[in-house]
Specification:
530 residues, alpha+beta, six-stranded mixed β-sheet, 11 helices, 24 strands, 21% helix, 22% strand
Amino acid sequence: MNRRAPIVIAAVLLAAVAGCSAPTAPGGAAGASGDPATMVLADGYEPESLHPLLGYGVEGASKIFDGLVAHDANRQLQPALAAALPEQAPDGMSYTVALREGVTFHDGSAFDAQDVVATYTALLDPAYASTVRSDYRTLAGVEALDPQTVRFRLTQPDSAFAHRLTLGIVPAEAVATPAPLAESAFGTQPVGTGPYRLAEWRRGTSMRLEANAQYWGGAPAVRTLDLVFAVDDNTRAQRLRAGEFDGTVLPPALAETFADSEYAVHHHPSADYRTITLPSGHPVTGDPAVRLALNHAVDRQGMIDAFFAGHGAPASTPIPEVLSEYAEPSAQFAFDRAEAERILDAAGWVRGPDGTRARDGVPARFTLMYPANDTIRRDFAQAFTSDARAVGVDVALEGLGWEAIEPRMGADAVVLGGGSPFDPDLVSYPLLHSSYGGDGFNNPAFYANPAVDAGLDAARRATDQAARVAAVKEWQRAYAAAPGFVFLAFLDHSYLVRERWDGYQQVVDPHTHGTTWGPWWNVEDWTPRS
């Protein structure tokens, strides 16, 4: 095929997860088919909706939809529905995009500029209640210059805007009526331009995708993708050993137990961080001294070694190692329990008879939530709690469902995940900028730091790369002086793949994982081994 840009597989991590203990593949098949034209993959996550404007595949993580651009194996932008990369105006206030000709949607209708305009217009219109609208704050509007050309107008220069054009394009007819998208049937009956179309979705159990024979990048050789939803890690591992799946994702230590099996073990570096939020309004987690002390109190490398067989990297900010040119070396927190004790002592947090500190009658105590069915976040929560208690801060753990966690994120701490390897602005800005305070998973704990805001704004507006790098490093220094989270680690993602196909290319994964990125990011280009 002539297409090498990724638009990854159908299942994607969203706020809520679902599954069952022993699901089977669509049509009742309980195992890998043996047919190299069919691939059976197990995932621990099931999407709530397949609508791009409700967050599905917003990073290009979809086999059903294409964006205007996509990222290749080297994290570089490549044209997808665009005929060429977007052209930025000299003043940075607009992007012009020429569109690929001859593209059709799964229903046979032609793709053109009106579909792009309709998709992004619906994104911006509050009547549609798009859940990703806040990620496009700098977008003023989009217009069709002709049937094959669109122009995006911005409210200000936005150095990362082109990376946001991975959003899946929907037919104009799908968003013709202004109404909340959560009520639209399109979320379960999607029509896109991608290499696969949805053939069947058995809620809580499985999903079947079938190859789009008319795909503009060429018909995939893997004609059927059966996705089986199985939340529990050990259950997936057991069923994999029984030969039911061609691949899955597992925690690193569990994945290593397959080293001598018929499956190849792939450990992918990622930008996928785990962090502890520290609500600003809480009398303990809102105290700058407690925040700083906790950042020194945690043994990040010890957590990685103990829980993930060393597969990961310590994190102090949301800037991953892969974005090394932007990383500020001085904005790293060393594990120094004595320094944490010193900071707390100086701030007046005094140990009591039970070892827990207090100040002015307020005990150094707070609640930390984590999703109960996520073993990785549970392990991080327990390790963090142990390290915090070692310096006199008492943490009460609560394993809950997301429906219970989300309403409390402004008041109680939570183990949060996120991260992007493509550009520092994509995650850092909404996570740390005060204007996003309380916007769902964007800055849920209302972190506010004027110096960080200023650096984030300067980096976003910069049209000169050197100035942009300097601004990113500046806000990291400001953040390290007054942190609002305790970043713990960037996780490696570990996968098992039956060695039956050629085409695997390693990538650096974003936060979205399981059977989204990982080995199958370019599965439409895989071919059976002879």
